[in-house]
Amino acid sequence: MRNRAxxxxxxxxxxxxxxxxRQFKRLLTERGADLTDSQMRELAQAVVDxxxxxxxxxxxxxxxxxxxxxxxxEALLAGWGLTFAESLRMPMEEMPGWDTTADFLSLANxxxxxxLRISAGSALRLLFGESAALxxxxxxxxxxxxxxxxxxxxxxxRALAYYLDADAADSDGVLEAADAWFGANGS
Length: 187
Hints:
- 70% of the residues lie in helices and 0% in strands.
- The protein is mainly α.
């Protein structure tokens, strides 16, 4: 039986973009990027054709909304004194601010949603050609590198591979290529 990560590995890039856009639809709409299904499909195809910038105002609105979502999520994590990378490494039971099971579940939901919004949003931004998203995508990929069923890491590796024109089936090679990109670009 295939797990969810295997499903993600089998998606084409346009399917990946479309699924991520649909995942963010409500959040994008709330921030002024109300996309029709047709616009999402056009944007996904534009990514495949390496012409995402041709989407003009549509892409600008989506990027702005994704930036707002990431900033909100980063602010939430910062409220706990955590960066995105630190949050990924922080076991839930070590998080401060909970006394009851209900507190724990509420805190876990907030933390996981913030991490997911940053990881999936940065993957989308990288697929749109935004090199600034590469650090968070690489952080996500490295965090889940040892878990072949980590869906977020698989999405991150797929986005990195596409951006860097690397073989997504060779996740170690993708991570090495991303590290090399940072070395060459002074980051």
